[in-house]
Design brief:
The complex is a heterodimer of chains A (about 220) and B (about 270). With about 220 residues, chain A is an all-alpha fold. Chain A is built from nine helices and no strands. Chain B folds into two domains: about 120 residues, D-Maltodextrin-Binding Protein, domain 2 (3-Layer(aba) Sandwich), CATH 3.40.190.10; about 90 residues, Periplasmic binding protein-like II (D-Maltodextrin-Binding Protein, domain 2), CATH 3.40.190.10. The chains are: A mainly alpha (about 220), B alpha/beta (about 270). Chains A and B meet through helix 2, helix 4, helix 5, helix 7 and helix 8 of A and helix 1, strand 2 and helix 3 of B.
C-alpha cells in the first residue's frame, strides 16, 4: 500500500499553522452574520412594504448563487467598477462576503423560527402593554431563537467549510496550505485527508457547543 | 429573564464587530493606496518546481528565485502572494497584484489585454513516440495515424488546425499519464505535450518513449502586467534586469538548479 502514515501525522501538525486564519474568518463571519441575519429576519417577519422586497431580493441572491461566485464578484469584479474597493484585503473581503452570505441564511432561519412561535404569544405581549418591538424582543424572539439554534449550528458549519474557497483570494487558509503542501510531495491523499480531518474536528466542536446551547435554552421546558 | 437577554447581547456585539470591521476596512482604503516601490508577485505556490513550499514551509522555486534576483537588480522590494491559480488573473485585473509569476504563456489574446515583460522561459509543443519507431517526425508524418492529446489543450488546437482534411485520428485524453501509457503499449502512435513535461516523463516514468522529431513550435512565458503608463516604465526596468541576468548567466544558473537543463533559451532558432 502506498499510504504514508507519517506524512499524514506530519501534515496534521504543520497544517495547524493555518488554523487561526480559517477560524478567525469563520468566527467573525458567523458573529457578524448572526447580528445582521437576526435583525433582517425580524424585519422580514414584519413584512414592511418596499423594504421587504429589497430584503427578499438580497436573501434570494445570496442563497441562490454559489459562494465562489460571490467571492469572485466582490473581490475581483467590483474593484474594476469602483476602484476604491480595490484596497480591501483578502481577509476583510472574505469576512465581509461570508458575513453577508451567512446573514442571508440566518435571516431565513430566524424568520421561520419566529413564525413557528404561536401568534397568541404576540397577542399576550401586546395585551400586557408591551410595544410591538418589545414583544418581539422579550417574548417572541427568545422562544424563536431556541428553535433556530440547531439551524444556526448548521450555518456555522457551512461557513467554516466555505472558508476553504478563500485561497482563491490569496488567503493562505487551511485548504490553501494543504494545496501547496500536496503540490510539493504529490501526497494528495495523505494531505487532503489531514485537511479533511481538521475540518471535521472543527465541525465536531461546533456540534458539541450547539448541543450545549440547545440544552441550555431548553431549560424548564418539557420536550 | 437573564437568559432572555443573551440573544440581544449577541446581536449587539455582532453589530458592533461588524461596524468596526466595516470602518476599519474603509480606513485602510484611504491610506494604503499609493503604488509603492513594492512589486506584488502572485503565484499559486503549488506548481513544483516553479513555485512551491520547501520543507521549512518557505516559498521557493524557479520563478521565486528569478523574482528575488529581479528585486535585487531593480531595487524594488518583492512581495510574493500565494493564491489559488483560479484567482490570480482576477487579482491582477483588480490591481491586487502587479504581476503573475506562474509560467504564464504569451498569447495574442493576453497580449491585447496585458503588458508582458520579455520572455524568461521558452518551450514548445513536442511529439512523443515509442522509442523503437522512426516514422513520427513532424505533423505531416501523423497522417493516417492516431495521436493522443489532452482535451481542450493548445496541442489539440495545433493538430486540428493543421489537419484540415481530417487525415489524423485525434484521440483526446483527460490526463497526460494515461496517454503516455497508451503510446508505450502501441494503442496510439504518438502523443503531444510540452517538451519540458515530456522530457521529465521520459526520465521519470521508465516507459519506452522518446521525443519524436524537433519541437513543433515555440511558446514563450513571461510576466503579465496591467497595461498602463506607470507599468510601461516598470516593465522596461524589469526587462533590462532580465536581460542582464541572461548576459551574466544568472538565469541559466537558476534554471540548472531546478531542472538540470536550461529552459530559458529559445527552442527554435
Amino acid at each position: 500500500m502506498n499510504f504514508d502514515f507519517n506524512i499524514l501525522v506530519k501534515a496534521l501538525v504543520e497544517l495547524l499553522s493555518a488554523l487561526p486564519i480559517t477560524l478567525s474568518v469563520g468566527l467573525l463571519a458567523m458573529l457578524i452574520g448572526l447580528g445582521f441575519g437576526i435583525f433582517i429576519g425580524i424585519v422580514r417577519y414584519f413584512k414592511l412594504p418596499g423594504i421587504d422586497l429589497i430584503l427578499r431580493g438580497y436573501v434570494s441572491f445570496f442563497r441562490g448563487t454559489p459562494l465562489m461566485i460571490q467571492l469572485f464578484l466582490f473581490f475581483f469584479g467590483l474593484p474594476q467598477l469602483f476602484p476604491s474597493l480595490g484596497n480591501i484585503g483578502a481577509f476583510e473581503a472574505s469576512v465581509l462576503i461570508m458575513s453577508i452570505n451567512s446573514a442571508a441564511y440566518i435571516a431565513e432561519t430566524t424568520r421561520a423560527a419566529i413564525l413557528s412561535v404561536d401568534k397568541l404569544q404576540q397577542d399576550a405581549g401586546l395585551s400586557v402593554g408591551l410595544t410591538l418591538w418589545q414583544t418581539m424582543l422579550y417574548v417572541q424572539l427568545p422562544q424563536a431563537l431556541r428553535v433556530a439554534i440547531p439551524s444556526f449550528g448548521n450555518t456555522f458549519i457551512g461557513i467554516i467549510q466555505g472558508t476553504a474557497l478563500t485561497f482563491m483570494l490569496g488567503l493562505n487558509d487551511l485548504m490553501g496550505l494543504g494545496k501547496m503542501k500536496a503540490a510539493v510531495n504529490y501526497k494528495f491523499f495523505e494531505i487532503y485527508l489531514a485537511v479533511g480531518l481538521i475540518y471535521w474536528a472543527i465541525t465536531l466542536i461546533i456540534g458539541q457547543t450547539n448541543k450545549y446551547l440547545e440544552s441550555y435554552y431548553s431549560k424548564g421546558r418539557m420536550a | 429573564m437573564k437568559s432572555n437577554k443573551l440573544p440581544l447581547i449577541i446581536i449587539l456585539i455582532a453589530v458592533a464587530l461588524g461596524s468596526i470591521m466595516f470602518f476599519s476596512t474603509k480606513d485602510k482604503s484611504s491610506t494604503a493606496s499609493e503604488p509603492a516601490e513594492v512589486i506584488k508577485v502572485g503565484m499559486s505556490g503549488s506548481y513544483k518546481p516553479y513555485t512551491y513550499l520547501d520543507e521549512k514551509g518557505e516559498l521557493t522555486g524557479f520563478d521565486v528565485d528569478v523574482w528575488k534576483e529581479i528585486g535585487k537588480r531593480t531595487g524594488h522590494e518583492i512581495e510574493f502572494v500565494t493564491s489559488d491559480f483560479s484567482g490570480l488573473f482576477g487579482m491582477l485585473d483588480s490591481a491586487k497584484l502587479d504581476t503573475i509569476a506562474n509560467q504564464i504563456t504569451v498569447t495574442p489574446e493576453r497580449e491585447q489585454k496585458y503588458l508582458f515583460t520579455r520572455p524568461y522561459v521558452y518551450y514548445g509543443a513536442q511529439l512523443i513516440s515509442k522509442d523503437d519507431r522512426n516514422d513520427i517526425v513532424d505533423l505531416e508524418s501523423l497522417k493516417g495515424k492516431k495521436v493522443a492529446v489532452g482535451l481542450g489543450t493548445n496541442y489539440e488546437t495545433i493538430i486540428r488546425d493543421f489537419d484540415k482534411n481530417s487525415e489524423i485520428e485525434i484521440i483526446t485524453y483527460d490526463s497526460g499519464s494515461g496517454s503516455y501509457q497508451d503510446v508505450a503499449i502501441g494503442r496510439v502512435d504518438a502523443a503531444m505535450n510540452d517538451r519540458l513535461a515530456l522530457q521529465s516523463v521520459i526520465n521519470e516514468s521508465g516507459l519506452p518513449l522518446k521525443l519524436a522529431g524537433p519541437p513543433i513550435n515555440e511558446m514563450q512565458n513571461a510576466f503579465p502586467f496591467l497595461n498602463n503608463e506607470e507599468n510601461k516604465e516598470l516593465v522596461a526596468q524589469i526587462d533590462s534586469a532580465i536581460d542582464s541576468m541572461y548576459e551574466d548567466g544568472t538565469i541559466k544558473e537558476i534554471s540548472m538548479k531546478y531542472f538540470d537543463m536550461d529552459i530559458t533559451e529559445k527552442v527554435l532558432n
